[in-house]
Amino acid sequence: MAQPLMPHATASWLVDNTALTFEQIAEFCGLHILEVQAIADDTAATKLTGRDPIRAGELTQEEIEKGQKDPSYRLHMHKEPDQTRRTKGPRYTPVSKRQDKPDGIAWIIRNHPEITDGQISLLIGTTRTTIAAIRDRSHWNIANIQPKDPVTLGLCSQRELDALVAKAAKQAGIEAQQDTKFDGDREALIEELRRERETAARDAEAALAAEEAGDTPQTPASEAENLFKS
Prior knowledge:
Elements: H1 7-17, H2 22-29, H3 33-40, H4 61-69, H5 95-98, H6 101-111, H7 117-125, H8 128-135, H9 158-172, H10 183-212, H11 220-229
């Protein structure tokens, strides 16, 4: 189902300007009903400026009136928003992360030499000139470049990196390396969560047994009260 171009802002406008139910607004905007509730209660993490879906051509006043008369009515999009399509070119990287690109490039060059400069350029969103400078160590800041996993730096996702490694390995006729660096951490996390669940279950059983036996531990306040009574 099509959604408004700015679902949260649209939901804010509908909450303030219509008598539609939260369920109707949530379904139309593609949000969870609790998100709409938070917007209505003004407890959403971000303060929103409402966006009028009527002016945007996404809803009509007649459609809103139908929904207000019948709470079970599902709103229908009048006109789907135009989807902005990104032109072909290097990946966009937020300004705050651009300084990390050389570190990510150096990591790929060191750990996956089978990946070509063109593939690195598309993955990281940089130029081949920069990659070549890092590869031959003629980069102006080469002394401060430290190879770091681009996934950890937030320059790409693990899925994108794995797919590129597999593709490059296939083109080079070699076997793709299996990334197992997180296996130990994952097992340790699972074991820790298991221990926490077992501890919580034992604590709950002990509390229930104490309650059934009437052995409720006294707080410092109750102990003091008993002392004065005696």
